[in-house]
Specification:
2 copies of one chain form a homodimer. The first copy, chain A, is α/β, with parallel strands linked by helices. Chain A folds into 2 domains: about 120 residues, Rossmann fold; about 100 residues, Arc Repressor Mutant, subunit A (Orthogonal Bundle). Helices cover about 40% and strands about 20% of the residues of chain A. In chain A, strands 2-1-3-4-5 form a 5-stranded parallel sheet, with helices on both faces. The first copy, chain A, has a 4-stranded antiparallel sheet with strand order 6-7-8-9, covered by helices on one side. In chain A, strand 8 and strand 9 form a beta hairpin. In chain A, helix 6 crosses helix 7. The model of chain A has no long low-confidence stretch (mean pLDDT about 80). At the A-B interface, helix 5 and helix 6 of A face helix 1, helix 5 and helix 7 of B. Chain B binds a DNA duplex through helix 6 and helix 8.
Chain lengths: ~230, ~230
DNA sequence: AATTTTCTTAAGAATTACTTAAGATTGTAT
DNA sequence: ATACAATCTTAAGTAATTCTTAAGAAAATT
């Protein structure tokens, strides 16, 4: 998705089937899912984990969705998406209008759910409510601007392809940390690595060609033998 | 807020719940809130009090939001934020853009409302009577005048449709920043994107046809492969 | 020093993303 | 009701990127 950040979404619904279904759809997008079956449990999880968005069923045993919304708002400013059955009283949903950021009626289209979740996360991040990531990163003259998506090396703008950019972004935002090829693959492609060792290596090569003066003696993108690659801090 | 100034915000909505909720959030930020339940009442209050910003519901009995916007603009230059339900016709809201400075769809996140209110107030105050929002943007000869809503390329006025204008405005006020197709769709249409990739692409094409000399080699509206589009700074 | 493993490099094939055109649909004005 | 304009959909063409294959070089191991 957006900026190489790992998002945690809390799904609160009393039906296990729904919780699990949503989990599948979101995991597919590289989003981590936490689950709770009622409002009380939800508040509990909120205390223990960093959560970036909540999907909340209106009708729940123990602390229903509406009350939960208020409780959550007292503590956190994270986006809330309300889930409700079509049949349920419109007035109730109206009352929610001030507390929630969006709502979806059941049955829902998985694509729609995913789109709305992503959209809210994006807004949350771009509103700056969520600390992080719009600063230019500068590592000894290699710079990355996450807003304009521009990378400069030795003062020159480097034209990177989307995958190359994502790899550079991952390594630069975690400069000094070594990533195995598998890890790079999984975090950039958002799917498990099966046989992609070479694929990543090829991209590393292309990147070096573009950002390094002498790609045989890389100053920025270094290999850590037998382990992986890192960006020099 | 900073600057020790007392701001007065007028909230115009026919639902009491919403008026009250907004009052709570804004008071929390040290902002004074005045309330009206329709356009007529709003104009009344405007005559009696100094108001720095208005939050206006589109759908209201007696003098609806749209007409109210025009009436207010005849007299004052203060920022107007439009509130509208998701269901309400996007085109109508688009048309409104002429009078308003920002708009928010219900349901909304209180934090977002507060953020937008503060941002408008900051602009209004720090730039005198307005200026900021009303400055002509000039990017190497492509100009956009937010007051007359006119775009000129190579000295000629370009006739843009409402959607086209909104896209150009978004890109020009954030020149250099890359927007994904999803982001463009969400910020212009105010709803999450699932399948509108092509829709946006078509508008981009139409815009290029109008503002570029050679739309095959665009000088202003550039693509960033695999990521999105941007307006050249 | 020989062998194995891991990494680098190159070129062409496959895939994906973008552009463009034309017609269908929707909305607005007369 | 009709005409007109704006917007959306579909589909095909074009450009750019990504992947695969395979061979050679460097580091580690024996």
């Amino acid at each position: 998705m957006y900026q190489m950040v790992q998002y945690n979404v809390l799904v609160v619904d009393d039906e296990k089937e729904i919780r699990d279904a949503i989990e599948i759809y979101l995991k597919n997008e590289g989003i981590t899912v936490l689950k709770a079956k009622d409002g009380i449990e939800a508040l509990d999880i909120l205390h223990q984990h960093e959560v970036h968005l909540i999907i909340l069923d209106v009708m729940m045993p123990r602390l229903d969705g509406i009350s939960a919304t208020y409780k959550i708002r007292e503590q956190k400013n994270i986006p809330i998406i309300i889930l409700s059955a079509k049949s349920e009283d419109t007035d109730k949903i109206l009352g929610l209008q001030v507390g929630a950021d969006d709502y979806i009626t059941k049955p829902f289209n998985p694509m729609e759910l995913v789109a709305r979740v992503k959209s809210q996360l994006r807004r949350y991040v771009s509103l700056g409510t969520f600390e992080g990531a719009n600063k230019v990163i500068d590592l000894n003259g290699l710079t990355l601007d996450p807003v304009s998506k521009e990378v400069k090396a030795h003062g020159e703008i480097v034209k990177l392809t989307p995958i190359e950019y994502k790899i550079v972004e991952l390594l630069m935002t975690n400069a000094g940390r070594v990533f195995s090829i598998s890890e790079i693959y999984e975090r950039v492609w958002k799917e498990p690595n099966y046989n992609a060792e070479n694929t990543v290596a090829v991209h590393i090569r292309k990147i070096r060609e573009k950002i390094e003066i002498d790609s045989k003696n890389p100053r920025f993108l270094k290999v850590v033998w037998g382990i992986g690659y890192k960006m020099e801090k």
